[in-house]
Write a structure and sequence with these properties.
Length: 181
């Protein structure tokens, strides 16, 4: 069945490791007949949540009208959401964290975002899978709270420089992730 897949990335490196995996995933998903929309959060104008709780009061998801209001309708529409990012300081990069925080507006606004599928693509420098916990655990808990089904995770430690991902099976695993959606 063809699904609407929303991909949100968090790296500012267009030729970086997580982007390479993202592209492998997107190509595989499109080849399977899914429709894919992608937002690269690091190249967008996005601030954090102001916790003003005026979500949807202006007609848009967020009263602070930046590029999140372009992403929000796509979150509502999506059957599956794939988050792709590097680890920054044992955590989620601020570029994509702004998007994740502002999913709050959909919840406060009373939108039904339950029942979606979710997946995670992530990488880090240190050759230690537990370094990815700082991304994996919050994303798993976010998915659970939103009643999203985490269908797959591609977690690749040990990649630092652009191109390092090619010395791993990360892109092949990212392509295979498309089969889980
Ligand atoms: C600001 C910053 C913080 C980072 N923090 C960590 C870290 O805590 N642990 C780690 O293993 N790698 C860390 N890294 C390395 C990146 O996770 C690694 O280079 C990754 O492959 C980058 O992915 P990208 O090419 O998709 O941007 C950091 C990189 C930057 C730029």
């Amino acid at each position: 069945m063809s699904k609407k897949i929303l991909v949100i990335t968090g790296s500012p490196r267009k030729k970086g490791n997580s982007f390479a995996m993202t592209e492998a995933f997107v190509n595989a998903a499109q080849a399977m007949g899914h429709s894919v929309k992608r937002f690269d959060a690091a190249m967008m104008k996005l601030g954090g949540c102001h916790a003003c709780e005026t979500c949807y009061k202006t007609g848009k998801a967020c009263s602070f009208d930046d590029d999140f209001n372009i992403i929000a309708p796509e979150i509502l529409e999506a059957d599956a959401i794939v988050f792709s990012m590097p680890v920054y300081w044992y955590s989620i990069p601020s570029q994509i964290k702004a998007v994740i925080d502002r999913i709050y507006s959909l919840v406060v606004g009373g939108k039904d975002i339950s029942g979606k599928e979710c997946a995670l693509i992530a990488c880090c420098e240190e050759n230690d899978l537990t370094v990815l916990d700082g991304v994996r655990i919050p994303m798993e808990r976010t998915a659970a709270l939103n009643k999203w089904k985490m269908v797959g995770e591609v977690l690749v430690p040990g990649v630092l420089n652009i191109g390092d991902i090619n010395n791993t099976d990360g892109c092949a695993r990212a392509a295979a992730l498309a089969e889980k959606i």
